[in-house]
Amino acid sequence: xxxxxxxxxxxxxxxxxxxxxxxxxxxxxxxxxxxxxxxxxxxxxxxxxxxxxxxxxxxxxxxxxxxxxxxxxxxxxxxxxxxxxxxxxxxxxxxxxxxxxxxxxxxxxxxxxxxxxxxxxxxxxxxxxxxxxxxxxxxxxxxxxxxxxxxxxxxxxxxxxxxxxxxxxxxxxxxxxxxxxxxxxxxxxxxxxxxxxxxxxxxxxxxxx
Length: 209
Hints:
Elements: E1 2-6, H1 11-22, E2 26-31, E3 44-48, H2 54-61, E4 66-69, H3 81-96, E5 100-106, H4 129-143, E6 148-154, E7 156-158, E8 166-170, E9 180-182, H5 183-196, E10 202-208
Parallel strand pairs: 1-2, 1-4, 2-3, 4-5, 5-6, 6-10, 7-9
Antiparallel strand pairs: 8-10
Helix pairs in contact: 1-5, 2-3, 3-4
């Protein structure tokens, strides 16, 4: 299995890289700061490039079995990395003939019990709305891509390794919902989803338990 990880040096990306290598995957770690990662593992290839460069993205995707996107950026809405990054990645996946993508977004894009999205509810925290709209645009690019996508809608991310103690739910927050998830557990779920294929063309709510 060979995968490419966009956002490989971020909080979740680093866990994805290390866990994928433990599974004996061949990993292409993509990002501007991939020099921060150790390249001593023969199964790890560092790809230093930007996510808005069509040719670099296409080259990184070609020949892979699946794509992971854990792109980050600022929370004030001025950083379009999350949305336009997914737009670039999905376009180049089609050119490369690669169909499977598992991407990370935010909890606000899950369905609310009252109807609509969580981000559209009156009590949704105002400080999360700008980045939430970026996640929403990213999801819409995935939804309209006709690719085999899964969009993991994360609550607050804790900088901790995998515990294996988490629950998931399709398109809605799980019950119970602690509002938190370990970075390592996000990576663990995303890699498990590649194997299990339980949430094709769905958003996923996730929470530590």
